[in-house]
Amino acid sequence: MRCDHCSRSETTVFVELHHNVGMLFARRSHTTAADLCRACLGKAFWHHTLRNVTLGWWGTISFFVTWYYLLSNIVTYVQARAEMGRSRRRAAPVVQEARGADALRILQPFEHNIRMQLRMGDDPSAIARDMARLHGVEASAAQAYVEQLRAAD
Ligand SMILES: [Zn+2]
Questions:
Q1: Rounded-to-integer distance, Cα 121 and Cα 144, Å
Q2: CA 43 to ligand 1 center in whole angstroms
Q3: What is residue 95's predicted lDDT score, i.e. its pLDDT?
Q4: Which of 34, 100, 116, 146 has its CA 20 to 30 A from that of 53?
Q5: Cα-to-centroid distance, 19 and ligand 1 (Å)
Q6: What pLDDT, in 10s, does the model give residues 1-16?
C-alpha cells in the first residue's frame, strides 16, 4: 500500500487523527484521515498531539473535546502500530525447504555422520528428522536419503 503523505510503498494503516482549536466561544476541528506509513503516522500523531495540547483547551466545550481527541488519537496510534507489526510478520518470506537434488546436495556432506549413526543403531527416521530440521531440507527427502544409505550399508 502507498502512503498518502510521502507516497512511499510501505506497510500502511488507515487512521483518523484529530485536533481541536479552541477559541473561547467557538472551536474548530482538524482531521487527518489517510493511509499512513510508520514514519508519517508518527509525524501526524505528534502534529495533532502538539496542537491539542497547546491550542485545544480554550473554551468549555473545547476542554472536553480536546481530552477526547488526545485519548482517541493515542488509541488510534497504538492500534495502528500493532496492525503494522502484524502485517510485517505476514509479509516475512516463507522459508522454502530444499528437496530433490538440492536436498541431496545439502545432505551429502553428512553421509559419513549418517552412516555412523546408523551403525550405532540409531532409529533411521529419528536421524532423518534431525537432518531435515538442522539443514532445512524436506522431511521426505531426508528420510529417502537415510534409507538409501542404510540399504547401501
Ligand atoms: Zn509516509
A1: 18
A2: 9
A3: 65
A4: 34
A5: 20
A6: 899 999 988 899 999 9
Average pLDDT over residues 85-105: 78
Q: How far is the CA of 89 from the centre of ligand 1 (A)?
A: 19
How confident is the model at residue 91, as a pLDDT?
67
Domain ranges of the chain: 13-91, 100-152
Residue 133: HSE in the Cβ half-sphere, 13 Å Cα cutoff: 6
Centroid of ligand 1 to alpha carbon of 17 (angstroms): 15
Measured in Å, residue 39 CA sits from the centre of ligand 1 at: 6
Which pLDDT tens digit goes with each residue over 67-85? 999 999 999 999 999 999 8
| CB-based burial label for 70 (10 Å; 0-12, 13-18, 19+) | middle
